[in-house]
Amino acid sequence: MQHELKRALQKPVAERKWVMVIDLRKCVGCHACTIGCVAENKLPPGVVYRPVIEEEFGTYPNVGRRFTPRPCMQCQNPPCVPVCPVNATWKRPDGVIIIDYDKCIGCRYCITACPYNARTFDFGEFFSDGTPSRAPYEEAPTFEYGKSRYRRNEQSPVGNARKCHFCLHRVEVGQLPMCATTCIGRATYFGDANDPDSLVSELIANPNVMRLKEELGTDPRVYYLT
Amino acid sequence: MATNAATHQRIGSKALIAVWLLLVLIGAQGLWLRFVSGHQPAAYGSYVTWGLWVATYIYFAGISAGAYLLTSLVYVGKLRRFERFAPLGLFVAAITMMLALIAILVDLGHMGRFYYIFFRPNFSSMMAWMVWLYAAYTVLVLAQLRLALRPRLVEHSRDAGVRGRVARFLLAGRTDAAPEQLDADKRKLRLLAALGIPLVVTFSGGVGALFATVVAQPYWHTALYPIFFLTGAVVSGGALLLAAIAFLWPERDEALQSAIGSLASLVLAVLLFDLMLEWAEFSVAMWYGIGHQNAMMSRVLWGPYWYVFWVFHILIGSLIPIGILARHRRSSFALGIGGLLVAGAFMAVRLNIVIPALVEPQLKGLEEAYYDKRLVFEYLPTWFEWQVVFFVLAAGIALFYVGCRLLPVLNSSQFGESNEPRQH
Description:
heterodimer, A: alpha+beta, four-stranded mixed beta sheet, 18% helix, B: mainly alpha, globular, disordered C terminus
């Protein structure tokens, strides 16, 4: 995947089509992707980009469990984009939906419009609130969208909607998204679906591929292997 | 007896002032907290992301639209016996619109960026449309109000005190009160009202569309919502106007009683129509007892906050006022109480629009996927949120009181007529 990523980066942005494939048969529900994402993006309380949904099926002794990581679906037809009253969120040519924190007014209309609950709001809270001092990791900058930002004094991204962006700041320097890197079972794949030789292109051609809420016509770019 | 009545009135006034001061104190603390702590003391989160303030916003926006629509229909339809109340209607519409805008402003994550909607609007967003329509509507209401008050402002402008100064400022030198000028004003007023009616129908239905166009929320995503919002606006706005006229109009004559009776009949009819729409909305979605909408509506009817629907909306806001409006036709006090109940309890309808849609996870199991107090599918407003709403209410009361003192909105003379006999 690393080589494919570098190959894709040689192409113009508009010719890339980033997709994520998650093999639910391999996911063990360790939540390493969730924690890796929180650490990478310095996510505060109330903000999560990639929770893992756990479900239990059946009745003892015939029982089973399923773990479904839920990043942003980076929809081809994103319902969250047209609702933004100030054009603060849009789809990049490579298909990733991004937010301009300096434009977002914090109306949270996009949060209500997402059919996957994939957007969250930054309330300006810290894990160390109520303790004598702030933890150093909470004062470190986040590098989302390639810009170094500190969360302080109600400045953006505090007061903004936030979401998974496929770790664009990593991808654009040739690194895989943090969730793909930290997955202990190698259940998360990432790559360019416009590259016919990429692993993700091969995987999404499988008959056991599904996407969440396909009936809505959002055309998600996160695929699940079941 | 007269002394007793005067004493009671004084005690009543003092009690009202005390309640208002309490609202101001509690509300000011809430607003201060909003500025220093942002959204942190609020109970809404990342999933139930809209709460009491958004409900307050659509509540006041609805009242404003309703009051304006009825008032403009008076001008356009040349309903002369209602014309003397029209400035009061415009005044109520202007104030409640301001309250709606305060409520939605404090709800923004970045209040200081609200003007971005004017400079970089995205017209595919219903919210952008709404803000632009509100702006146009506010300008229109204020222009209409000035025109409607102009003949009376000319009289006020002769006063030496604050009232006179305010009148002279608003008139900006246009003190001509000749019958031809007043007729010209009246024509302009009718024209503005004619322009305002489609505008207010658009923005009132548009608030409904702001919710209805959200495909992700089946509870909101219904074509009935824009119509539902329009009728709701007429019900709540008409009811508040009814209460204001019944309680505050200074001249208690037969014409007033007749006008109040007619307004009460209108409110009653539209309230019944609104309930019929609501029945359609609920019964269609719940008939077979399955589906996403059924789950959310069941929560509204039988969930933990069932009393919002049954007690506040149905009992206090519908059944009791229906009884009052239908039976006590001759008592302006009773009709005023009826109007106040409908208008006040309509907040329950607004809360039941905003919140239930968001308390159902979009994906099953998401509620347990990540533990955080902001990532839950439950919501009950905090005291802080109510405090801010109290501030909005206190601001509304203050604006209304000051407006009534300084502007001739409660003047019983009709458009173009002075209280004094005209000189020929």
